[in-house]
Amino acid sequence: MTEQRIADLVNAFRNGDARALARAISLCESGEGAPVVAALHALAGNAATVGITGPPGVGKSTLCAALVRKARSAGRRVGVISVDPSSPFSHGALLGDRIRLAEHFTDPNVFIRSMASRGHLGGLAGATADAALLMDAFGLEFIAIETVGAGQNEVEIAELAQTTIVALQPGSGDSIQVLKAGILEIADVFVVNKSDHPMANQLRREIRAMLGIMQYEGWVPEVVATQALEGDGIDALWEAIERHALFLNESGEIERRRRERFAHQVRAIAAGRIRALVERAIATGSDDGDPYAAAARALASLGIQE
Amino acid sequence: MAATTPSARERPLRVVVAKAGLDGHDRGAKVIARALRDAGMEVIYTGLFQSPEQIVQTAIQEDADGIGLSILSGAHMTLFPLVIEQLRAQGAQDVVFFGGGTIPPDDVAALKKLGVREVFTPGAPLQDIVDFVKRACARRTLVN
């Protein structure tokens, strides 16, 4: 993109043109977002970001839609980022999380962006952090980020969101025992969705029991039962999110999380660039069957001496 | 086919596949969505019963290169023009608008005259549709 086009885009963005926000996110997705972020990052820093993660089918999109409704009724401008996996074979993706948000499509104060993971691991897309930053800079005040259907290891959302919601559904109780590490450790708020299910109370008890044997300093994760489709429990969830936000502010934790988020983004950008350079070195390097020696040669060709 | 990681600068085409109005027949739309996905595109599916305004807003927020509208209800002469109107109103005419469904040949000609880039009727080979979308959307690149 030429400098003039970047300048036009930044101007349109500052004037509140949703197309400019959409285009800026696309630039970040294809690795060309640096000048746009440079021009706009100073406008960010006011949004509350809430991450929603959990296994496939638990109701993340439905919870997200319920929270968006709640945020809108509180008069806040809303951004939604929802990530679905890319096919590792075709690199294509079917992005279907929007379906649950249809009621907000024409609300000028709700901006929804579906992102394909494009090979990124960790439950998000490589440019999700950029997209959240741009939405924040655009003036969106409540940003909900929905991860891909997560297993045990998709914990990157905790680096990005101020408040992380881990949604579980009844019947997954036994797995809690083996899930103590990873995704269960990142929850600021647990949601037991589909609370009309007969096993729901048992799951709540199991989560509470698990929390009882963990050591927490400061914030102890809350457990909220919801039936997101009917809107049941959403008020309680909203209040838990607000209590967590209050805790972050009063304890100073919010500043620590902001620094962590920044470091995470810097790390991701720098590592991505190094990876691209290493890929190039691999493509042009020789193959003598010794992977360590080849790695040393690849690093040496980048001027890195171990 | 081996699993690979896409390169950072590779930008997949993004296409909105939409169902509009009172039309619950989404099998065709889902088949098309799947075919475009398998051709390496990122397909945003809107779900059923969308208004033209909802479809165009979706395309804008998703920075989509194209919109594919499926209509099997007979309301194509109403809904296609309304989407075109919305695209104009939003300044988004650069989005490639195409469609498909049970649409008589006379109407196909009329819709193309109105600005629908292509209309696929029952029996159209999936590969033809994929090739069309690739060709038509390729020109709308990031520098656009």
Describe the structure.
- The complex is a heterodimer of chains A (306) and B (144).
- With 306 residues, chain A is α/β, with parallel strands linked by helices.
- Chain A has three domains: 1-40, no CATH class; 44-251, Rossmann fold (3-Layer(aba) Sandwich), CATH 3.40.50.300; 252-306, no CATH class.
- Chain A is built from eleven helices and eight strands.
- Chain A has helices spanning 3-14, 18-29, 34-40, 60-73, 128-138, 157-160, 173-178, 200-213, 234-251, 253-284, 291-301, and strands at 48-53, 78-84, 93-95, 110-116, 142-146, 163-168, 189-192, 222-225.
- Chain A has a seven-stranded parallel beta sheet, with helices on both faces.
- Chain A is globular.
- The two termini of chain A are 37 Å apart.
- With 144 residues, chain B is an alpha/beta fold.
- Chain B has one domain (12-136): Rossmann fold (3-Layer(aba) Sandwich).
- Chain B contains five helices and five strands.
- Chain B has helices spanning 27-38, 52-61, 76-89, 105-114, 126-138, and strands spanning 14-19, 42-45, 66-71, 96-101, 119-120.
- A five-stranded parallel beta sheet of chain B has the order 2-1-3-4-5, sandwiched between helices.
- β3 of chain A pairs parallel with β2 of chain B, so a sheet runs across the interface.
